[in-house]
Automatic annotation (TrEMBL):
Domain of life of the organism encoding this protein: Bacteria
Native species: Flavobacterium restrictum
Signal peptide: none
Taxon lineage: Bacteria, Pseudomonadati, Bacteroidota, Flavobacteriia, Flavobacteriales
Protein name: Aminotransferase class III-fold pyridoxal phosphate-dependent enzyme
Family membership noted in the UniProt record: Belongs to the class-III pyridoxal-phosphate-dependent aminotransferase family.
Amino acid sequence: NEKTPTQTDSLENRRAKIIQQAQEYYYQKPMNLVRGWQQYLIADDGRVYLDAINNVALIGHSHPKIVEAAVQQLKKLNTNARFLYEDNIDYAERLLAYFPESLQVIFYTCTGSEANDLALRLARAYTNENDVLVIDGEYHGNTTAVDEISTCLMDNPTASKSVRPFTHPLMQPNTFRGKYNSETPDVATLYAQDADEKIAFIQSQGRGVAAFISESLLGSGGGVEMPKGYLQKVYESVHKAGGVCIADEVQIGFGRMGSHFWGFQKEGVLPDIVTLGKPMGNGHPVSAVITTHAIAEAYRKKYTYFNTFAGSPVSSQIASTVLTVIESEKLQENAAAVGAFLKQELEKLIYEFESVGAVYGHALYLGVDLVKDKKSRTPDSQKALWVSETMKQNGIIIYPTGDYYNILKIKPPMCFTKENARFLVETLRTILSKMED
Ligand code: PMP
């Protein structure tokens, strides 16, 4: 029987036969991972890799406290969202203490895409409008509704051609690559004007704004920090037009910003809806939408919401343990200290290599923009792929992102140490030297 896997068939061949090719994976010659531990991944040949990419495993792979929480709860009770149990109430109370006073209602979901999908429904129900402002090049998930508002070319190569009439991408406020750079006076205002123009256009068509959705540090864009004050200006314009602001914290939330628990706090804005995912369960699929009583109420008057697995007792115990460990192991403080050190060391490479154009990001969410040469700033995806493959051969996992696939993204588990950071930068330095020779 051709379908029966044989001992001699490689894992890659078995995978290629049955798992849809649209579901891509990292690396041309992937390693077969069999174990994760803290900030390390271990392959079947015994090789240990430093994991500099898994922000999902926020508190580290295979954390014993997570294992214990899951096992104990699985032994006791795991059921669906329509029953009353304490676990998801306890967790919600605990999580909401991390939010401002206005954001005190939670909807449980299972993935970042579901959270953003529901956030759009909430915004549309509340405003009775449909149009959405997004930041160009950003990704918000894989459901039909969020795909329609995602313009990240890496995840959807035809995105710029298929933008829906109700989706309005704002020029990405990237001061290295964008229309206005860091030397332009009042760069935040110039970029924010784009939002005013798009809002005016929507209104000129007799429609209104439902929402503006964005990350507070552009994760899909490679960790780009927006010019100071930009987000505040856009939020102000959107609110004035009657729209709501959605902060997508799926990638960057839960302490990774070091200085702040949430990205939106770092930018000094107050969203109406916040979406959470990836690291919330350290790899276990649990996510959430946090909003105001008024928005939740407007939605309830029109719809109900049911999501079988969302906020189950096991998910709640795991998510709660993630918070316990962030607090007890001081991982937010570690993200601030190690992240600042790592960024400072990476920035030295800008002066050492023609191929390093810029270093983006904050704390433990960083990006290294690789270019053909400094003058042209032409993005160089070939270099980024080669560097990533060679880093892997040297025991470090990082990978390219961004519309041009030329930005090395670095977003490790938050237990990453200064020693790990030194090793990463030294290895990258050696590889860049070899490449430029
Ligand atoms: N929002 C952002 C910013 C993301 O990066 C992602 C996933 N990469 C999502 C939402 C979707 O999350 P999920 O894959 O869990 O559905």
